[in-house]
Amino acid sequence: MRYKINLLPEKKTTLLDKVMYFSLNYLRYIIVITQLVVIGVFFYRFQIDQRIIDLKESVDQKKEIVEIVLPLLQEASRIDKKSLEIDRIIKKQEKFDSMVKYLLSVFPETVTLTNLESLEDSLKITGNAVDAKQLQAFFALLKREGKFAGIEFKSIKKTENGYNFIMTLDNYKSS
Hints:
Elements: H1 15-106, E1 111-119, E2 122-129, H2 132-145, E3 148-159, E4 162-172
Antiparallel strand pairs: 1-2, 2-4, 3-4
């Protein structure tokens, strides 16, 4: 049998001793962990700051690109508007050309044209006809072919040389 005999008296630990023991043993680990967290946050902060700087540079580059491209876009828009206007005018001229070519192709040789007025898609014809039958045949041909929605005589006057007339042709339908 063995006996353990402790000849040293048991030491009474005071509050100060307990705090000292805790601070020497555990507080150093807490401080080391805290320092590691602070260093980690410090490096993370560097990383975030670098990202912010990169994003600001990217935004500045994009602003410069927009400033450079904006006049080009405005010029392209102006050119597009001009091109649309040119297309509209060309279509209008082609319609007028088609209308006049058609009228001249069916216009009788015995009828003299004295005035031709054009509005959008209609014509006002002033002329002289020697024979009323030729004028009547011209009117019937225009009605039959139906290229104009409205065909009417505004006035017909008998003169010593034949007939003076004013005719309106409205709403030309190009085919």
